[in-house]
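Ticket opened by: R.M.
Priority: normal
Category: complex prediction / small molecule

The reporter submitted a protein together with magnesium ion and asked that the result be attached to this ticket for the collaborator who will pick it up next week. Submitted input follows.
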Amino acid sequence: MNILEVKNLNIRDVKTDNDIVHNGTFTLKEGSCLAIVGESGSGKSITCRSIMRLNKSWLQQSGDILFKGENLNLLSEKEMRKMRGKKLCMILQNGMSAFDPSCVIGVHLKETLVEHFGWSNKEIEEKMKNAMESVMLKNPIEIMNKHPHQLSGGMLQRIMIALALVLEPDIIIADEPTTALDTISQFEVVEQLIKLREKMGSSMIFVSHDLGVVKKIADNILVMKDGKIIERGNIQAIFSDAQHEYTKYLVSAKEELSNQFKKIWGGVNLLKVDSIDKFYKKGGMFSKERQQVLKNVSFECRNGECLGIIGESGSGKSTLGRLILGIEKPDQGTVLFEGKNVMDRRVRLGAISAVFQDYKSSINPFLRLKKPFRSR
Ligand SMILES: Nc1ncnc2c1ncn2[C@@H]1O[C@H](COP(=O)(O)OP(=O)(O)O)[C@@H](O)[C@H]1O
Ligand SMILES: [Mg+2]
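Result attached by the on-call engineer:
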């Protein structure tokens, strides 16, 4: 059964007389996940918001949006408000814009839950605490007493998912829920969304420009371009047998990315620091006394790897950095980049670059910014 049927959805900006979405027709099967993909500006968010009836007033929508047979386009604002949250729940790209910045998170959550269920404060706290723990948020009570700006994007995203867990909506609309997050949070948030679907059997519309994520979570795909749906089908069909040039391009770009990823992952050693000793002169100009700052330091760094170097102040971290950059010479040992010694100038210009601790001393204050960049 289709839980949602959208027929001939047209969205027009009456301010500019622009048609933004043309004749959008699609269905969402109960319990399934429909992904909407497409480049930025193709109309994905506006389509999602039109289902929630949350677009700006100058964006007029026409056509039918049938939720369990009921036409949302014909409902009054009051009736629509009852739909939002409990029946249709939206998880936004930017957690920060989803919460009221002037109050702590708990207040917002309580308002929403009181409106839909009329629960007591204690009940709400109990339910939210469980839901937040299930999306790996530690110290839920503490979090509920914080303002949105005191939490990271990943945490806010998880709070929205936790709220969805409590609301148990019929349809979850997730509009690029991971785009604003770092890679690790992205992965975790997608995992949580998959679990949420499994647990509650909710139907989902998942907007993303990342086909890798889409492949993981969705059953069917719509591809949008310039406000039109240009291709649709189930996941396997789209990946193996895309018809439209644009979809083929999206799929091949994804393949290229994952090949690149594989290459990096199985990567070769890019940097080899081998048995480095470094001494600095101690005392005045004529002093012969030396202090050893690096003793027999060796390590390797693979292509694509991020290696952290930590140590107390004065332990030699920055010195090591300068040796890798070839700005200073080691007293003993070598630094090899792609097999070449960084001290002989055969290493590609710009192959190793640094972001210094103190930006003021790294850019010449007498030049306009474009000058030092152009010299590369
Ligand atoms: N509030 C708005 N008023 C007028 N036009 C808008 C508004 N929001 C988005 N648009 C326009 O609608 C089109 C689709 O935008 P959007 O749905 O946000 O794209 P996507 O989510 O696919 O990146 C774009 O051309 C955009 O400029
Ligand atoms: Mg968008």
